[in-house]
Design goal:
heterodimer, A: Rossmann fold, six-stranded parallel sheet, four-stranded mixed sheet, 23 helices, 12 strands, about 55% helix, about 10% strand, elongated, B: about 240 residues, alpha/beta, Rossmann fold, 2 domains, 8 strands, about 50% helix, globular
Chain lengths: ~475, ~240
């Protein structure tokens, strides 16, 4: 039996016709844009293999590059905090805010801060976090979780957002997209100007130069890092790349894979705290976050799940994601990459059902800009879920063991096959089984018919013909 | 040319006509066809559901059956089961003391071919002399397409069939939603994926949907039947056997 939660969540998503329409429109658009964008690269396959090599090398020498990054960031006058857990990261950031009497912070979209639920920690400490990415702003107003890695409000329609703004902002009802963005912009501009601290993630952290690289389209990251005096970047340790010139590979891959753009409107390269002659008191804090990543690093079989650059391309092409959307995955990382990293960052016990919710079609691997073998990772996690006893299904296991035994004994295989086919034909009407009496057959016939086997098995036909 | 058939358990038990059609087609092309009836199942279902010890025991059986087979090639009517042996068996024999099994596996793996890639790439044939006066569309089975990289071979074989009209559907390379035990563990999601595929098949205007994997065809046939659609499913081998 599947985990009732995931089954229920996906059922709710499939029943939600508004969500279905939004998902279809959004994923179709992103697939098409990506397809067009990658044609502008002469050899896309070579580029992504190059990116994979860089990531593989970096992850395999992560200790070296982390130390290099810390040294270069500190040389620029930045401060580095090693966060073993999400709580450690949250505590440090809250401490930085409280020690300076900060009451509100502006935030850019960041999966790392979603992962550690930084907003909750800040609010609990009396610090008001303001999401400044339009999608995240919408999600924050709605008190929801993001449903896509790069487009967090992908599941919401314009009409729903109009309703939300009307209710929460109390400044009339914005109807057109331009009105919605203007309303958000007006609110957020004041937040930018008054916030003493900006919190971001990072798309890349360059070890050689200590550069934090942030890729965006709205300019809110530029503002979050350039207006407040204090900038805190929360960065998973897998975000490192060795050299500045490696960016020439990744900055071509990321926007094309993510939004289907050749380049995003803004790319910020930040080296330590801002420095001006007129003012003092600027600070830059780099929070280097483990939060389960070294566990993945230690597992050679699963290590390549750390190559991910969080572009979201695997989500858009995934037939399962296209149908159930991001929130059904139960945590902040959805789609194929979510099904791979959630059980590792959380635990197999918590989200070990996700790897089973895949048809293993492999479209994600083709779309991945760093060629992560996602289907293979899903298969490995399925095996881990069974080996560890986390996904214990005694009836299924007994059936599998029984089938394996039969399959090692061809005579038995022939006879039990004959029996199975006789039963199947008894249940069939007009060549089709329309309704199975019990699972797993009824799980099949709940949704489609099952063609009944016709005549003797191949092996029986062959034997008969051979005997002639 | 001598070929030993790898008749997948699904074809053997549920769709034996596909196996017969393979025999007919291969013999027409002058191939000597053999079938070792000690074969059973490659173990993919167990492997994909996470039961590696069970999958391994079936893989050992498969290797034992085929390692001493003198055939030039082992040919299967399934991209998925071919991929299981060619791409995934290695994962079942990974340990440092598994050389014994890896060596035995190496006597099987290189000779394994999916039906359409065997005809086009090994026999060098595209026109098998078949004739079929119908509109058909071709579904790219995921593992055939993405594990084995086969998409042109079946289309060439189909185009060479006399009187046939191949109508490509929109996005023929998207999944049918089957996915092995996924189809029953998460039947509702599997069905939602299938419905989109079925709409594309129907919109193509084809009378038959052709694929090289009986598992996809089982899903599609079940869905078409439930929807009361007149569109029929057909394995490529059955198409190529038509005269």
């Amino acid at each position: 039996m599947p985990n009732p939660d995931l089954t229920q969540r996906s059922h709710d998503a499939l029943e939600n016709s508004v969500l279905q329409g939004a998902l279809k429109a959004a994923t179709d658009t992103f697939i098409e844009r990506r397809r067009e964008a990658i044609t502008s690269v002469a050899d896309w396959e070579a580029l992504r293999q190059r990116a994979r090599q860089v990531k593989e090398h970096t992850i395999n020498h992560l200790d070296y590059y982390l130390e290099q990054l810390v040294a270069t960031v500190e040389a620029h006058g930045g401060r580095v905090f090693w966060a073993h857990t999400g709580q450690d990261a949250c505590r440090y950031i809250v401490d930085v805010a409280q020690a300076r009497g900060i009451k509100s912070v502006v935030k850019s979209k960041s999966m790392a801060t979603e992962e550690i639920e930084l907003n909750d920690a800040l609010e609990a400490a009396g610090v008001r976090p303001v999401e400044t990415d339009l999608g995240e702003y919408i999600i924050q107003l709605a008190h929801e979780k993001p449903s896509h890695i790069i487009v967090p409000a992908i599941h919401k329609t314009r009409a729903q957002i109009s309703d939300l703004f009307e209710e929460k902002l109390r400044a009339g009802r914005p109807n057109e997209v331009a009105e919605i963005t203007a309303m958000a912009r007006k609110r957020l501009r004041n937040e930018f100007l008054s916030a003493p601290m900006g919190i971001t993630g990072a798309n890349f952290a360059v070890a050689e130069t200590g550069t934090i690289v942030l890729v965006e389209n709205e300019g809110n990251i530029r503002l979050s890092t350039q207006v407040p005096k204090i900038h805190v970047a929360v960065v998973g340790i897998e975000k490192l790349i060795p050299r500045f010139e490696d960016l020439s590979v990744f900055l071509r891959l990321l926007p094309r894979s993510g939004t289907g753009q050749k380049q995003t409107a803004y790319v910020s390269f930040l080296n330590g705290p801002r420095q001006t002659k007129a003012e003092a008191g600027f600070e830059f804090h780099l929070v280097l976050m483990d939060n389960g990543r070294t566990r993945i690093l230690a597992d050679e079989q699963m290590r390549e799940s750390l190559y991910c650059i969080r572009c979201g391309a695997c989500l858009n092409v995934c037939p399962v994601y296209q149908k159930i959307g991001g929130q059904a995955y139960g945590w902040i990382y959805p789609g194929p990459i979510g099904a791979v990293i959630s059980p590792q960052l959380q635990s197999l016990k918590q989200s070990g059902d996700l790897p089973f919710a895949s048809s293993l079609c492999g479209a994600c691997r083709d779309a991945c800009p760093v060629a992560i073998n996602l289907p293979d990772m899903l298969l490995a996690l399925r095996a881990k879920a069974k080996e560890s006893g986390v996904d214990r299904k005694p009836a299924e296991h007994a059936a599998m063991r029984g089938f394996a035994f039969i399959a090692r004994h061809p005579g038995l295989f022939t006879w039990s096959g004959r029996l199975m086919r006789a039963f199947a034909r008894l249940m069939a009407k007009g060549g089709m089984i329309k309704s199975g009496p019990m699972p797993p057959l009824s799980d099949w016939t709940d949704y489609r018919d099952l063609p009944a086997p016709r005549g003797p098995s191949f092996r029986e036909r062959w034997k008969k013909e051979d005997g002639k | 040319m001598r070929v030993s058939l790898f008749i997948t358990c699904l074809v053997d038990q549920m769709f034996p006509d596909v196996g017969e059609a393979m025999v007919v087609t291969l013999r027409r092309l002058g191939v000597t066809v053999g079938f070792n009836d000690a074969q059973t199942c490659c173990g993919q279902v167990a492997f994909n559901t996470g039961y590696r010890p069970e999958a391994r025991s079936m893989a050992e059986h498969f290797i034992k059956v085929f390692e001493s087979d003198p055939a030039d090639f082992i040919v299967a009517p399934s991209g998925s089961c071919t991929a299981m042996v060619r791409n995934f068996y290695g994962e079942l024999f990974q340990g440092p003391d598994e050389r014994f099994w890896r060596d035995r596996l190496a006597r099987v793996q290189p000779r394994l071919r999916e039906f359409s890639e065997f005809i086009v790439n090994e026999l060098g044939v595209e026109d098998v002399g078949a004739s079929f006066a119908h509109r058909v569309t071709y579904h790219d089975a995921c593992h055939l397409l993405r594990e084995l990289g086969v998409s042109e071979e079946p289309r060439r074989l189909i185009r060479a069939v006399r009187n046939i009209n191949l109508l490509e559907m929109e996005a023929p390379d998207t999944c049918c939603g089957f996915g092995g035990t996924f189809s029953v563990k998460y039947g509702e999601i599997s069905n939602a994926i299938m419905q989109e595929k079925l709409a594309r098949i129907v919109n193509s205007g084809a009378e038959y949907v052709i694929a090289n994997d009986s598992s996809c065809l089982m899903q599609l046939a079940g869905g078409l039947s439930r929807a009361g659609s007149p569109v029929k499913t057909m394995h490529l081998a059955e198409l190529l056997a038509q005269q």
